């Protein structure tokens, strides 16, 4: 990407003197000035609670909050703003669907279809739903070394008509981008509802919910240059309109009697209590920022960096790189024979390279692949080949130190 240095200057953390190489973007991204400043301005001068006050400040604040919803609608090309529910993040969005939609639609004897490459947040809520209802969970297996999903198995499992197929767009460990459009089409042909975990894809590749054809899609603002504490659940409006609420209280009710309550239509029905108002202003600014960088360039830049790192890491002795051998999404997960992943991360940290080590919230998959602990470097549009080289140099040094 031509403008990396220009974009780096927009981030206080990256604009300093010799900053650490931040290669933990899969966990969360750094925040640009535009997001920080927008939240500061809003909190300092425009803030009040939303949807309640008759006073001008509350009306303005409500307009900002609902404006962020419209901005998210546009970003994901949803048909209506009423399809956009603000949640705390991906995890809460999946829990919302598992409770509200799952409680209504999943019964004993039904199947819930996931994949082996899911993050715990798109696995544990479904396991709990299965335990509550007596449903069974099945998993689409991954190919050798996590190189992708077994799509033949997916076809067979979808033909068995599970109630829902919940799967990740980009794997946070395997750097695989799943063919979401084809899988949603296949699901639709079999009458299967779909949920896409877009936590890793939403600010890395273009995500168009109408083109993908999913029923639900979940993501977190903090992985998109936005603040923590807010995320988006997209739901097809016809489905949201049929779903009961899952949390109860103020804001989500139309009329309350001593004996009961009538609920508002979506999205308000799913946003009980005071929402993340300041964070919604930050999310708006983050989406503007990501769009100004351009998702096509972000995708090309961050996956080229991951491929570059994967190639260099593979050439080191005893290194096993997971996922596809060629094209990959913006990250690289790897293990080194004889060196624990935590030692690799400590070694990198000493050389001011920030990477992730552990199971990456995908314990079942990493155990299946025989690497309960591994290291992961994840890139974004503000990372550089020089930072990738710093990673590879640190890992090479660690190998020489631990495996002399
Ligand atoms: N799904 C995937 C694929 C993820 O990478 C993550 C975050 N690591 C999550 C879900 C959970 O996101 P959050 O913690 O923001 O809810």
Short description:
The protein is α/β, with parallel strands linked by helices.
Keywords:
single chain; 404 residues; alpha/beta; 7-stranded mixed sheet; 4-stranded antiparallel sheet; 14 helices; binds 4'-deoxy-4'-aminopyridoxal-5'-phosphate
What can you see in these coordinates?
This protein has 14 helices and 15 strands. With 404 residues, it is an alpha/beta fold. A hairpin with a 2-residue loop joins strand 9 (253-257) and strand 10. The structure holds 4'-deoxy-4'-aminopyridoxal-5'-phosphate.
Strands, helices and their partners?
Layout (H helix, E strand, L loop, with lengths): L3 H5 L12 E2 L10 H14 L9 H21 L7 E4 L2 H16 L5 E5 L8 H10 L2 E5 L10 H9 L4 E5 L11 H10 L3 E5 L11 H4 L3 E5 L10 E5 L1 H6 L10 E5 L2 E4 L13 H17 L1 H20 L4 E3 L9 E6 L4 H10 L2 E2 L1 E3 L4 H6 L5 E5 L6 H18 L2
Parallel strand pairs: 1-13, 3-4, 3-5, 5-6, 6-7
Antiparallel strand pairs: 2-8, 7-8, 9-10, 11-12, 12-15, 14-15
4'-deoxy-4'-aminopyridoxal-5'-phosphate binds next to helix 4.
């Amino acid at each position: 990407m031509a403008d990396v240095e220009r974009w780096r200057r927009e981030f206080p953390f990256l604009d300093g003197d010799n900053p650490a190489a931040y290669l933990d973007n899969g966990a969360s991204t750094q925040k640009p000035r535009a997001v920080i400043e927008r939240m500061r301005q809003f909190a300092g001068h425009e803030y009040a609670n939303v949807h309640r006050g008759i006073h001008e400040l509350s009306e303005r604040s409500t307009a900002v909050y609902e404006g962020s919803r419209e901005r998210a609608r546009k970003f994901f090309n949803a048909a209506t703003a009423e399809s956009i529910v603000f949640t705390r993040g991906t995890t809460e969005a999946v829990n919302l669907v598992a409770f509200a939609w799952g409680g209504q639609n999943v019964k004993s004897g039904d199947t819930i279809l996931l994949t082996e490459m899911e993050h715990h947040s798109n696995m544990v809520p479904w396991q709990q739903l299965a335990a509550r209802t007596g449903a069974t969970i099945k998993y689409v297996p991954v190919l050798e070394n996590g190189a992708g999903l077994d799509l033949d198995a997916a076809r067979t499992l979808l033909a068995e008509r599970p109630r829902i197929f919940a799967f990740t767009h980009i794997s946070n460990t395997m750097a695989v981008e799943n063919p979401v459009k084809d899988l949603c089409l296949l699901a639709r042909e079999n009458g299967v509802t779909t949920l896409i975990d877009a936590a890793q894809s939403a600010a890395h590749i273009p995500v168009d919910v109408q083109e993908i054809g999913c029923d639900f899609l979940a993501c977190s603002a903090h992985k998109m240059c936005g603040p923590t504490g807010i995320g988006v659940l997209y739901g097809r409006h016809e489905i949201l309109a049929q779903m009961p609420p899952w949390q109860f209280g103020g804001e989500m009710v139309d009329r309350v009697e001593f004996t009961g309550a009538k609920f508002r239509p979506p999205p308000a029905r799913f946003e009980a209590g005071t929402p993340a108002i300041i964070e919604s202003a930050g999310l708006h600014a983050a989406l503007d920022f990501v769009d100004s960088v351009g998702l096509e360039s972000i995708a090309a830049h961050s996956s080229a960096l991951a491929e570059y790192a994967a190639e260099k890491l593979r050439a080191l002795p005893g290194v096993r790189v997971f996922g596809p051998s060629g094209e990959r999404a913006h990250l690289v997960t790897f293990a080194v024979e004889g060196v624990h992943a935590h030692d690799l991360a400590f070694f990198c940290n000493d050389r001011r390279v920030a990477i992730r080590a552990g199971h990456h919230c995908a314990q079942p998959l990493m155990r299946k692949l025989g690497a309960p602990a591994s290291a992961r470097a994840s890139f974004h549009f503000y990372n550089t080949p020089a930072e990738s080289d710093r990673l590879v140099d640190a890992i090479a040094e660690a190998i020489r130190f631990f495996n002399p």
